[in-house]
Every structure is written in C-alpha cells, then in structure tokens.
C-alpha cells in the first residue's frame, strides 16, 4: 500500500467510526465516545473535513458537567458489548456519562486545528468550555500542586506501571461478580489482567456510592496518585489555551498562572532513584518504580531536565519503534500488554508536538519515521510492540488513523 492509499484508508476509518457528531475509537471494543480519543479524531477530521472536526469537539463538550468536568466516556446509545456501561457508573448525567475525566489534550489540538483552518468562530465557541475544564482540573485534581488521577482510567494509561503501588492498596473484597467484555474483542494477553479489573470496578463502585462527590473522592477515595503525564499535558494545554485567548482577544491570565503553578510543583514528582518525574501515591508518598511514557511527555510541556533526558534517550534507543509506554529494562515491561510496554502512536504524536515546538528536528523526524513504519507494516491498530512492531489491541482505530493524517504521514 502506498502512503496515498493509507491516507484514503485513514479517512475511511474516521468516516466508518463516525456515529453522527461523534466518533467511536473502534467498533466492538469501544462503542461510545471517549474523551481524548475524540480530541484526536477532531484533529484527524480537520485535515479533510474541518467542520466535522469542530463538530467532534462540540459534541464532546456538550457532555460537560456543570462543574466543568468533561467525562471520559459519553454513552450516547446503549451497547451491551462494553463493560462497565452507563448503568454501572450511574452518574445521573445527561447525556449518560462516566464520572471521571481523561487527559486534557483538547486545547492542544484545537489550537493546531485553528492554525490549520483559521476557523476563529468555532474556536471562540469552545474557549469558555476549555477554560472551565482546565479550571476543574485545577480545583479538583491538583490537591498538592501537580495533576492527580482518582482512577487509572482517568489517566488514559490504564495499566501502566505508574499505578501499581496505588492499585495494590485498593480493596476488592466487595466487588462481586461481573463479566468483562473487552477480552471478547481483543486477545486477553494484550489487555489488563483480572486483578486490575477488580480494582478498576472497586474504584467505580466507591464513586457511585458517594454520588460522585468530589470532596469525598479526594478525601476518602481508594486511589489518588500524582500523574506526570497529565501534569505535563496540562502545562502544555494551559499554555496553548493562553495562546488561544490571545487570538480571541480574551483577557484572562488564569491558564498561564495554572501552567506556572503546575511547573513549580513538579519537584514533588521527582524520583532521585530513577532520575525522572514519575507517578507518586498521595497517601503514602511512595514513587512508582519504573519510568513510563509519562516522563517522556515532559517533552510536550517543554520541561527540560538533562538527567531525565539521558534516561529517556537510553529507553528510546533500547527499542526499535517509537517511545515505549514502559522501560524495557523494568521487570514490569511486557511489550504487548496495553500500557505496560507497547508504543502508542498517539503518545508519540504528543511528544512530537513538543519536539516541533523546541525545534528538535532530527528527533521529531525519527519519531515520525518510526511511528509511520509501524502503521505501514501493521495498519491502523491501537498500539504496537516496540521491539518487533507487532500490531496490538483494536484494529481500524480512530486515533491511529487521525494521527496518521495529521502528523505521521509527513513526507520527509
Ligand atoms: C477501557 O475500557 O479499556 C478503557 O480504557 C476505559 O476508559
């Protein structure tokens, strides 16, 4: 297949996954609208149908809670093929949604969409919603400065090694019986394990039992960990939101202040042992024991640290394709199991945005070349083995098609 054929296929995947105003990540495995998947879908659509790209973000933000939170799943239509569905979350939201959020990449991608399309009015309509969401992160997810997550699903990097410590403390004794659906769609060896799922469900049950009351979740919830990835994403997203505000002539310095505050709090995530920013358990103060792609997203935020960069360069050089989600030298590394080793085209695309901004041309080109190679060889899968390039997870994946169109198919 030529790159031109791949362009066609990528556009066809976005069209096929379009459910009318929103795009599912892939049929079967993920039959609803997911938050950060949708932001990438919007970016992909913007390369050939800008109006449809903005519509995607509008549909996502139409599900925003009055608190400013933008949920991680919006259950537009019932589908028994996914667990846990709207009935398990029981948030009472309209449209039905989950009770947690997901990485706030929308402002980063909306800024790029605006630069490419010049659709200032579509951006203007989104701006207050983005601002409210970022304020929600500041008010409800930064209890000690950095961005924290209350559920591994909120991080978007569900079973990465970052969460092992916090997950080990989650009590699963009252979870009860349930049936997973994900392993009916994808090889179980590429998905989180049963112990992970018990804990995921236990955390959802806590949220549901307290009526998704954020004070209770932060104070007494079973899981709360500082997340380097979301901290870095939010630093970048706040600075991009400030740039959006300037374009729109809005006079609000909050996003810049929020970005500076996040950056000032970063030392709390610094592990001397690993010489990197890593996840940290709020309750115990313990650090995660491996360097994940969360650290690599420091490049997206423009956070410079020579010691960490040396570690990241070694990790990148130890695989063949892209930035792995876990350090291949770590005991927890598993090259095909979801976020415990595979390389994710979308994460590579975010890191590349940072490399582009920093003028790091050669590294950006290498990352793009390696990501494009995976797609040329394996197709539009969800993630890939970083050692041998085996395609993993769901096929015909929206965000992989989107980043192909918006970034990876760059020709040089
Ligand atoms: C899943 O169900 O695997 C999702 O990652 C949750 O958001």
List keywords for this structure.
single chain; 412 residues; mainly alpha; Glycosyltransferase; three-stranded antiparallel sheet; two-stranded antiparallel sheet; 18 helices; 9 strands; 4% strand; globular; binds (2R)-2,3-dihydroxypropanoic acid
What would you note in describing this structure?
- This protein is mainly α and 412 residues long.
- The protein has a single domain, classed as Glycosyltransferase.
- Helix content is 49%, strand content 4%.
- The protein contains 18 helices and nine strands.
- The strands form four sheets. It has a three-stranded antiparallel sheet. Strands 1-2 form a two-stranded antiparallel sheet.
- A hairpin with a 6-residue loop joins strand 8 (383-384) and strand 9.
- The model has no long low-confidence stretch (mean pLDDT 97).
- Residues 72, 153, 158, 182 line the site of (2R)-2,3-dihydroxypropanoic acid.
Summarize this structure briefly.
Helices cover 49% and strands 4% of the residues. The chain is mainly alpha-helical and 412 residues long. Residues 72, 153, 158, 182 line the site of (2R)-2,3-dihydroxypropanoic acid (DGY).
């Amino acid at each position: 297949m030529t790159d031109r054929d791949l362009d066609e296929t990528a556009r066809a995947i976005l069209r096929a996954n379009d459910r009318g105003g929103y795009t599912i990540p892939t049929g079967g495995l993920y039959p609803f609208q997911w938050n950060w998947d949708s932001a990438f879908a919007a970016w992909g659509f913007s390369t050939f149908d800008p109006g449809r790209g903005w519509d995607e973000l509008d549909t996502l933000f139409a599900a925003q809670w009055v608190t400013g939170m933008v949920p991680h799943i919006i259950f537009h239509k019932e589908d028994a093929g996914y667990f846990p569905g709207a009935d398990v979350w029981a948030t009472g939201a309209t449209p039905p949604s989950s009770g947690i959020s997901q990485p706030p990449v929308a402002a980063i991608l909306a800024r790029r969409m605006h630069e490419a399309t010049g659709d200032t009015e579509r951006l203007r309509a989104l701006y207050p919603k983005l601002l409210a969401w970022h304020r929600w992160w500041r008010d409800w997810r930064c209890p000690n400065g950095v961005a924290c997550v209350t559920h591994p699903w909120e991080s978007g990097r569900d079973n990465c090694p970052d969460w092992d410590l916090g997950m080990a403390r989650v009590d699963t004794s009252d979870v009860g019986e349930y049936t997973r659906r994900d392993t009916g769609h994808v090889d179980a060896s590429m998905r989180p394990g049963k112990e992970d799922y018990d804990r995921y469900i236990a955390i959802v049950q806590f949220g549901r039992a307290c009526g998704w009351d954020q004070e209770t979740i932060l104070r007494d919830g079973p899981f709360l960990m500082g997340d380097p990835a979301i901290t870095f994403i939010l630093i970048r997203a706040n600075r991009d939101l400030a740039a959006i505000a300037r374009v729109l002539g809005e006079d609000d310095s909050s996003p810049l202040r929020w970005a500076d505050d996040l950056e000032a709090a970063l030392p709390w995530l610094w592990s001397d042992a690993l010489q990197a920013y890593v996840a940290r358990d709020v309750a115990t103060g313990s650090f995660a024991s491996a360097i994940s792609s969360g650290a690599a997203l420091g490049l997206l935020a423009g956070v410079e640290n020579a010691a960490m960069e040396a570690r990241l360069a070694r990790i990148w050089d130890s695989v063949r394709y892209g930035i792995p989600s876990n350090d291949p030298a770590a005991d927890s590394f598993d090259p095909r199991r979801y976020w415990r080793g595979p390389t994710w085209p979308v994460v590579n695309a975010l890191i590349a945005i940072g490399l582009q901004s920093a003028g790091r041309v050669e590294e950006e080109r290498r990352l793009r070349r390696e990501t494009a190679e995976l797609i040329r060889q394996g197709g539009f899968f969800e993630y890939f083995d970083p050692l041998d390039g085996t395609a993993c997870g769901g096929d015909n994946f929206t965000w992989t098609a989107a980043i192909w169109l918006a970034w990876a198919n760059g020709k040089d």
